[in-house]
Specification:
Distance between the termini: 34 Å
Strand content: 25-35%
Number of strands: 5
CATH topology of the largest domain: HU Protein, Chain A
Helix content: 40-55%
CATH superfamily of the largest domain: IHF-like DNA-binding proteins
Shape: extended
Structural class: alpha+beta
Strand order of the largest sheet: 1-2-5
Order of helices and strands: HHEEEEEH
């Protein structure tokens, strides 16, 4: 779905104007960005959690030449899906 399709769907389901639905979506992204940046995590109930994580420096290989290279440490954003969401999309296997 595109952003405009999501906005149209939200507006129809909730019964609000598309402009308001778009503003809510933009504000959600803004709050998520600010919270993940400051506290290191942002939870969207029922969907998942965005986490700020530190990656250690490591040694890698240039696939073309095979030479060893140093990959510096950096901060990345990871998104962990909520168990309920994951199970709804891909049901767990029966044992």
């Amino acid at each position: 779905m595109t952003k405009s399709q999501i906005v149209a769907h939200l507006a129809e389901k909730v019964g609000i104007p598309k402009k308001t639905a778009a503003a809510v979506l933009v504000e959600l992204v803004t709050v998520a960005t600010k919270e993940a940046k400051s506290s290191g995590q942002f939870v969207v109930p029922g969907l998942g959690k965005a986490l700020k994580a530190n990656r250690k420096a490591r040694t890698g290989r240039n696939p073309q030449t095979g030479e060893a290279i140093k990959i510096p440490a950096k901060t990345v954003v990871k998104f962990r899906l909520a168990k309920a969401f994951k199970d709804a999309v891909v049901p767990p296997k029966k044992k």
